[in-house]
């Protein structure tokens, strides 16, 4: 059940009523690496869905150790892990082996397209692998045309639509619709927030919520993951 924090937050009806709605732990920077506390905070938002964001390699290694030693099954119905994008030192083959060793309760492993060096190495992840469209800071993985070769090489991979990333590429959001036209059948979940001028995730602004609505109405069958704190009450 979604907590009262969702019901009371000043977000629009489409988002607050969506099922399932959850949060990413990536914006809880003050708790980074403290997985017990991060999961507790995520449960305050929703027991339905979560993305455990291990954005740096040390965080990811810590998450792997925590999942292996915690001895309990997390209560979320949808569990996504965000693979590391920063401070990478592991050879790609070893990173993939560690991704493959994640518990079977993990529904999705989100990987940034620009971090993939040899796509074939990720094929054993099958449909658990989820590729996310990138923002305007990145050199590739931003549009359907740039993602198509990766999906061709990884035919079982899923897709995570990051709506504000798509907006940073095309403010009209036609690009977001093109991504759904191309990869909608692969859609596994949605990333949702607003972006500041440096493309950092910030709480969803009312104007963006209104602009995103036609896109979100095409994504009703998958979890929506908030990548920033809920707007203030």
UniProtKB/TrEMBL annotation:
InterPro entries linked to this entry: Xyl_isomerase-like_sf
Protein name as it appears in the record: Xylose isomerase-like TIM barrel domain-containing protein
Species lineage: Bacteria, Bacillati, Actinomycetota, Thermoleophilia, Solirubrobacterales
